[in-house]
Amino acid sequence: MKKRSYVLILILVFFFLIAATAVSFLTLSFDRTPSIPPSAYLRLDLAGPIVDYPGSGFWTAFLPVGRMLSVHDIWTTLRMAKVDRRIEGVFLKIGLLECDWAKCAEIREAVLDFRRSGKKAVAYLEELPEGDKEYYLATGCDRVVLHPLGWIGINGLGGFVPFFKKGLDKIGIRAEFEHVEEFKTAYNQFTESGFTPAHREMMESLLQSRFDDYVAAVAEARKKTPEEVRALIDRAFFQGDQARDAGLVDDVAYEDEAVSLWVRDGRRAKPVPLAVYERLDPSSLGLNTGRRIALIYGQGAIHGGTGTPQTMGSDTVAGWFQAAREDASISAVVFRVDSPGGSAVASDAIWREVELTRKKKPVVVSMSDVAGSGGYWVSMGADKIIAQSQTLTGSIGVISGKFDLSGLAAKLGITAEKITYGEKADIFSPYRPMTSAERDLFKKQILWIYDRFTAQAAEGRHMTAEAVDRVGRGRVWTGRQARELGLVDELGGLPKAIETAKTLAGIDAGAEVRLVVWPKRVPFFASFFGRRKTETAAIPAGFLPEDWRSALNWAMRLNQDRVWAVMPLLPE
Fold first, then answer.
1. pLDDT tens, 358-410?
2. Residues of the chain with pLDDT under 50
3. If we measure between CA atoms, which residue out of 32, 45, 116, 64 comes closest to residue 271?
4. How are beta strands 143-153 and 120-128 bridged, if at all?
5. Strand, helix or coil at 63?
6. CB atoms closer than 10 angstroms to residue 345
7. pTM of the full structure
8. Number of Cβ within a 10 Å radius of residue 297
9. Which of 14, 360, 387, 514 could form a disulfide with 391 if both were Cys (CB 3.0 to 4.6 A apart)?
10. Domains within the chain, CATH numbers bracketed
11. Are 563 and 446 within 8 A, CB to CB?
12. Are 46 and 93 in contact (CB under 8 A)?
């Protein structure tokens, strides 16, 4: 018995020592202010997924290997590096990016702002077979360098949209959806065999707008005419010397040769990775001080209840707005929106919080890649809306319905017996189609919600309901188009939104402000031992082509709600 007690004590002591060592390691490794050499450069390795704001948890909070790149962290570090005398320049190694154009524009603008300090920014590229977004970002730098055997593909914008109706018909699945109006094409991939005229018109308009912006930006950066850039895009692929001879890059060199651009007094500047440099306190450089402005991030699909770092739960976002509204030290709120929409009810609940907050202090929306449908709904109550030219927004419309699996069940020999109390108790059942009367009921319901959507948009944007309907009807617009139509106020990124919020709050234009960010970074132990929200199952990567997988995952995520304000999927 004594022996067993001794063993137990030793085990407890052992785990205590491990815990103490871990805490000490975390404190020493991550809480300590990093040491920056007197001659250094900031290194940004940009590849893979980029979100607006990073998630929480042990891996994302502490270990560089598990970090998710975020626009917030990149922007913050570039702001610090701009004023830090120890930082001589920034080196961006750019790989394939998993984000849309507006986030690339946001990072590109941050690089351009960094260069206003007189410091250099160099982009290094290796292999980008479909690299339009990546090359667009690279052109924000002083110099673009390509690996000697590297190649870049700038073959323009476009792609295929898969339509599943004929395939679903073969296996006995029917998509039954009602929508308002003709441009609300979120489920057309399942209800149609190809583009409707409205769907095609919208897609061509969006891609044309994006393409024109892309060409104009590259032409300005590389000192070419738009016609010359379009001709280069039609050539599509450029290797090493070809890219240099065409004026697309400045140098062809290995990475160590590109890095050697930072030399001062015969000494090579030392690299400082993003994961290290971002541990600096911005206030040590005179940044993020002064009056307080709340910065609320709303990311991902909108749904009721508690959200996650990458989904917008209405209860969670409402709580952030309530906290910002009741905090007398907060002068204004910037709401950063990156969402294709979701539940109409949840979207309206967040809109209500925006409305209540703007009655007490200014609210400015900053749109990221997407702020469409429900993403626009949560935005339209703000005092001002700022969007990137490449942002996708609008999609003012509603859709509702279900998938009828009765044909598939019959093919598989599956039978279902019905017991109901109430004439329409089984209206959402996948084992029978909807009747014409039920489809009329759906249509009536979503028309009522659409009227509410347009009325609130008209109020927020100081337009008539008729004017909103003309630019609504489910149609998606780029940020540039939306500005022309009155759906957004100005073009720009997060810095523009913060400056606008300062103006509305009566803060001097040149004054620094302290950003109070939601969601809060979760402490280690809370994230490690805390409850985790179960996510909707998704089709794993590699199982189907990416465009198929995206469409089917989208349908699965939305199946938990019944009425949606969502925008269609768009090709790259």
1. 999 999 999 999 999 999 999 999 999 999 999 999 999 999 889 999 999 99
2. 17, 20-31, 57-66, 265-266, 523-539, 541-543
3. 45
4. parallel
5. coil
6. 18
7. 0.89
8. 26
9. 387
10. 35-155+236-281 (3.90.226.10), 289-395+438-564 (3.90.226.10)
11. yes
12. yes
